[in-house]
Amino acid sequence: MPQKPIAPLLVLIGFMGAGKSTVGRFLAHELGCPLMDLDIDITHTHGGIPDLFEKRGESGFRAIEHHHLGSILPRLPRPSVLALGGGAFMQAANRELLAKHAATVIFLDAPFEVVRARIADTGHQRPLVRDLERLRKLFEQRRPTYLMAEHTFDASESDPAGLLTSLVQLAERLGVVTTARDRL
Ligand code: S3P
């Protein structure tokens, strides 16, 4: 018997300030499906991320992040949207987990100056944001790995409407059924 295609798990990756959480929220709303924000879920179980970095160091945080990702992936309904923290896709073990669960990985790409301005605008405490030059270096180091994602979308506009339309179209191509209505 022909197998029914499984609805996708849309995973948003990208640097801090790329808009993963915000775009993820809008996208899930548009698609009428659940959103899982990995960092928020980690916070519910383990407490705030700045505290985790302080108590366990970055490597301790990465271990929790990997373990948490591994435990939620098999339980996420399909379709759903999953927003990852900016460093999660850097870990090969996390990329393997995503591949094992047939996730559709989407890189939200924005230039350094754009993410830097957004990072400065949000009141979020981000332990890896210390000085500008280190942040720029991290951005440059990470971008080639983000580009390994199956899909890359320009996330530089401050109004996410156009990006959302493109993401909804991708979701529809991947088999998510949406009701036709005016977009944002
Ligand atoms: C991190 C990004 C953060 C958070 C943690 C580490 C990173 O998430 O996971 O502070 O390594 O880039 P956002 O990308 O949502 O800011």
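^ shikimate-3-phosphate complex. The domain at 9-178 is CATH 3.40.50.300 (Rossmann fold). The pocket of shikimate-3-phosphate is lined by residues 16, 20-21, 39, 49, 85-87, 126-128 (CB under 6 Å).
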